[in-house]
């Protein structure tokens, strides 16, 4: 059957990429269809129920600043919140939450079901409709043909997915879900460059059979409990619970080594490359043979279940080895395994074959996002989904001839967002192992903090149409309060003649010798906003007490003002650096340039540029093997009008 309605954007897959893609496109007014295997698994977490962490938390805040669902759903579902790197600089501070997986799915589904312009449909997609070279829709398992002007594919680990437990293996998209085999075959026919990756998950345990008294308790941050979303409140959180820690030991390691000859990883059954930063326990024991013990976090999967996720023992060893290795650890001597651990191999597509909007170069209208682009992680998937959803909707606007400021696509710069870093890394460098976000990937990380994601992105999000009125109002109030408070501090002067020496020593550590404004004083390493304000409101400085004037905005506003003051030197220097490289970064390369005919470049560089066809000189410089010298030669060639 041909479904009667034509959609602007069809999203295939209801995981973290697909749900954000569908929500973003629909928020922008695109008539959007989300086609997925099973409505019950919308927003399902395939692996551990936790969101955020260093680098990943930054992405979640950016998704949130652009009106996405992940952060606010985590606020509604989070059962433990922590700020990681809390004692380090603000650039690397990151929020991490343990979520109740049932509450999380419900929070995502509620948003999807209540989103105007969005339709949900449960069916496996087996085929794509292609006319000429352009995608025009998708066909489901029972032959329903949905027409759409763009299609965003977010099939995660499902394309030709194969699960491994020991030497046994079978086809699946993840445990309990079917694989996408026909769609994988169809994509192979399109000859888009692809290969295999793998990832794994640990066995899950029944908490009633764990002796927690033998484990170390790990509570979350309780005073105050962090929130993820800029629109979130701690009062949204359900009950908070602790996690627990146990350790592997020499016996555990012996048991694991004893299973190596039946490991699909070591016997060559698995060919796909796995995530280096989230290795299986057998990989850890093999690679770090000298390490006597590894920490294992026992994380609750929810409030209404006894299921525990033992973080650190992801494995595809045979079940009998899993059983023994679990029971070799303190507190787990009688642990019952509820679900075996496994590894999964799946198809991914070389992201270098994508344009900087995530549209495939070879099939106009077809966008890829999430794990199928070679990444790993919910947060990386959500960020890509939101990005692809925005770009698919922008393309529809352009097809309609509707003018906007974006000209048919949008990509944040590397100095604007981790999202920009993620997309740029993927399309210019590709991947050799599952890609995950780290703060070290961002060269301008002092600017790309969690705390200022809204300041960096919400205005653009509003212009794109993904930020609703409530979020925009809240953001505008915060932005204005930050600017008012900064101005107030800059225009409030403290004169040593009016400030008794003992008061100066109490607040500032020493007597001041000449007049300073409050903003300058706040730049001093030992002077905090709160202590500075204790100078205020009294006889020394006559001005309103800002805590009262800022009302409930006080904490986030003060945070912004304080960071701006404390790091102003570094931030200004970084801004100068960005400005210096901006011209080179955004220098547009002609789309029809024949790199093979540029004699000044080596054959290798010519071939790489011809293959990847970067949009800008900045992107060209990040393609591996394209040296700064080659970039200078390319620039000279272009300036000569070559
Ligand atoms: P998914 O969450 O996989 O969602 C894909 C969606 O598409 C599903 O809803 C599926 O039903 C649907 N779908 C697929 N094909 C079709 C089709 N043909 N028709 C209709 N619907 C379709 N990440 C980490 O960061 N660390 C880890 O340790 C880790 N371990 C993992 C272990 C396992 C076993 C698995 C399966 C995943 C693991 N992940 C891990 C990855 C994490 O789950 C993914 O990064 C994330 O879920 C990717 O999101 P996604 O939206 O791209 O895809």
Automatic annotation (TrEMBL):
Signal sequence, start to end: none
Limits of the tRNA uridine 5-carboxymethylaminomethyl modification enzyme C-terminal subdomain domain: 565-636
Coiled-coil portions: none
InterPro entries given in the database record: FAD/NAD-bd_sf, GIDA_C_N, MnmG, MnmG-rel, MnmG-rel_CS, MnmG_C, MnmG_C_subdom, MnmG_C_subdom_sf
Entry-linked SUPFAM superfamilies: FAD/NAD(P)-binding domain
One MF annotation (Gene Ontology) recorded for this entry: flavin adenine dinucleotide binding
Keyword Cytoplasm: yes
PROSITE patterns: GIDA_1, GIDA_2
Cofactor (UniProt): FAD
SMART domains, A to Z: GIDA_assoc_3 (SM01228)
Residue sites binding FAD per the record: 13-18
GO process annotations (BP): tRNA methylation; tRNA wobble uridine modification
GO annotation, cellular component aspect: cytosol
Binding site residues for NAD(+): 274-288
Family: Belongs to the MnmG family.
Function: NAD-binding protein involved in the addition of a carboxymethylaminomethyl (cmnm) group at the wobble position (U34) of certain tRNAs, forming tRNA-cmnm(5)s(2)U34.
NCBIfam families assigned to the protein according to its UniProt record, in alphabetical order: mnmG_gidA (TIGR00136)
Name by which UniProt lists this protein: tRNA uridine 5-carboxymethylaminomethyl modification enzyme MnmG
Organism (species): Ottowia testudinis
Taxon lineage: Bacteria, Pseudomonadati, Pseudomonadota, Betaproteobacteria, Burkholderiales
């Amino acid at each position: 059957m041909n479904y009667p309605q034509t959609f602007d954007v069809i999203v295939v897959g209801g995981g973290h990429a697909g749900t954000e893609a569908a929500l973003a496109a629909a928020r922008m007014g695109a008539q959007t269809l989300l086609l997925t295997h099973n409505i019950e698994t919308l927003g399902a977490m395939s692996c551990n129920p936790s969101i955020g962490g260093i680098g990943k938390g930054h992405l979640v805040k950016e998704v949130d600043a652009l009106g996405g669902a992940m952060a606010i759903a985590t606020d509604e579902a989070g059962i433990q919140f922590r700020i990681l790197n809390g004692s380090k600089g603000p650039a690397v501070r990151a929020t991490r939450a343990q979520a109740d997986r049932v509450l999380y799915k419900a929070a995502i589904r509620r948003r999807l079901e209540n989103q105007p312009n969005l339709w949900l449909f449960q069916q496996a997609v087996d085929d794509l409709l292609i006319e000429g070279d352009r995608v025009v829709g998708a066909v489901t398992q029972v032959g329903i043909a949905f027409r759409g002007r763009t299609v965003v594919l977010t099939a995660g680990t499902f394309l030709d997915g194969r699960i491994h437990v020991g030497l046994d293996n079978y086809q699946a998209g993840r445990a309990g879900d079917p694989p996408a085999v026909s769609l994988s075959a169809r994509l192979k026919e399109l000859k888009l460059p692809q290969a295999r990756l793998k990832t794994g998950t640990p066995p899950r345990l029944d908490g009633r059979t764990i002796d927690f008294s033998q484990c170390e308790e790990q509570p979350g941050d309780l005073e105050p409990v962090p929130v993820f979303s800029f629109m979130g409140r701690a009062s949204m959180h359900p009950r908070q619970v602790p996690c627990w820690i146990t350790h592997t030991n020499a016996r555990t390691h012996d048991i694991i080594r004893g299973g190596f000859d039946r490991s699909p990883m070591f016997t060559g059954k698995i060919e796909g490359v796995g995530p280096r930063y989230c290795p299986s326990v057998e990989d850890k024991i093999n690679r770090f043979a000298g390490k006597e013990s590894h920490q294992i976090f026992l994380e609750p999967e929810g409030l209404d279940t006894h299921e525990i996720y033992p973080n650190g023992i992801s494995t595809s060893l045979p079940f009998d080895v899993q059983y023994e290795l679990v029971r070799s650890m303190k507190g787990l001597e009688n642990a019952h395994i509820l679900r075996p651990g496994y590894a999964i191999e799946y198809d991914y597509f070389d992201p270098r074959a994508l344009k900087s909007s995530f549209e495939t170069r070879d099939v106009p209208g077809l966008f890829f996002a999430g794990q199928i682009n070679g990444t790993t992680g919910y947060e990386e998937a959500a960020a890509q989904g939101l990005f692809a959803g925005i770009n698919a909707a922008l393309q529809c606007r352009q097809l309609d001839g509707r003018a906007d400021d974006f000209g048919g696509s949008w990509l944040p710069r590397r100095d604007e967002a981790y999202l920009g870093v993620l997309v740029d890394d993927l399309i210019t460098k590709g991947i050799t192992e599952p890609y995950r976000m780290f703060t070290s990937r961002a060269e301008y990380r002092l600017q790309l903090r969690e705390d200022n994601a809204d300041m960096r992105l919400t205005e653009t999000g509003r212009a794109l149409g993904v930020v609703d009125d409530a979020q925009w109002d809240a953001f505008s109030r915060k932005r204005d309060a930050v600017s008012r408070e900064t101005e107030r501090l800059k225009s409030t002067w403290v004169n040593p003649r009016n400030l008794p020496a003992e008061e100066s020593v109490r607040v500032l550590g020493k007597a001041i010798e000449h007049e300073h404004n409050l903003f300058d004083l706040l730049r001093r390493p030992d002077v905090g906003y709160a202590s500075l304000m204790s100078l205020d409101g009294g006889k020394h400085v006559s001005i309103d007490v800002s805590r009262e004037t800022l009302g409930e905005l006080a904490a986030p506003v003060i945070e912004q003002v304080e960071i701006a003051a404390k790091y102003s030197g570094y931030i200004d220097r970084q801004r100068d650096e960005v400005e210096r490289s901006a011209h080179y970064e955004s220098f547009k390369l002609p789309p029809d340039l024949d790199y093979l005919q540029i004699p000044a470049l080596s054959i290798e560089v010519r071939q790489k540029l011809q293959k990847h066809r970067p949009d800008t000189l900045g992107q060209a410089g990040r393609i591996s093997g394209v040296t700064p010298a080659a970039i200078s030669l390319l620039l000279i060639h272009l300036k000569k009008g070559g």
